[in-house]
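Posting for a labmate who doesn't have an account.
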Amino acid sequence: MLDMHCHIVPNVDDGAKDLDTSIQMAKAAKLLGYDGILATSHYIVPDNELVNSEFIKKIDELNKEFKKNKVGVTVYKGNEIFFTNDIVDLIKEKKVCTLADSRYVLIELPLYTNVIPLNVYDEFNKLQDEGYIPILAHPERYDFTTKNINLLYNLIEAGVLLQANISSILGKYGIDAKNNVKKMLKADMIHFLGTDSHGISNYSTYNKAIKKIKKYISDEETFNDIMYGNPLKVLKNQKISIWYPEIEEK
């Protein structure tokens, strides 16, 4: 099982504060069934621009430490890229990582806006024209989702995949995110789940969250796609079929 969103690399963003925390996170993830973790450290222009070569080196070192400590988890390259107009250029210039060197790219939008930025569709189209597939990080947390969840349907229609945070169902990010993720699960609008862990705390409530999530998913096959099938296709750089939900107008 692959965690699609995790801040496990130490001392690069607001995630793991040191190597020991990273090891604890990986061990906790392993106990829950994960054997792979995408290291989706923040890349924000200009506030948090990781030097990609140094970031990759840290991932290599982390995997060596995990092997030495017999953790049984592999960390793969990735970034959570804060939306900007030049994502394609950042990829081509090797300033950011796609997910596990695949065609899939994890992107975060501004949380506190009631509308989708006007240039989002243009930028996502540019990515797709270059062969990349945008994945939107934690869409349930955006103010525009609360205002009109159908805006997410428009993104899906435009070829964007959606990754929700597992702990949103428990209210970790507030009541709006909790209600939004319930609606999204019911409408089959989620293609991936991730822990978005920045430390070890998320793992303690994981089983409780998954149990609740299952109540809102239409069938076992969809749950398996979200939890296992789609993440594996990212690792293998395979095409993921987008399903087009129908939701009621708000």
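Reply:
Got it, the structure tokens are right above this. The radius of gyration is 17 Å.
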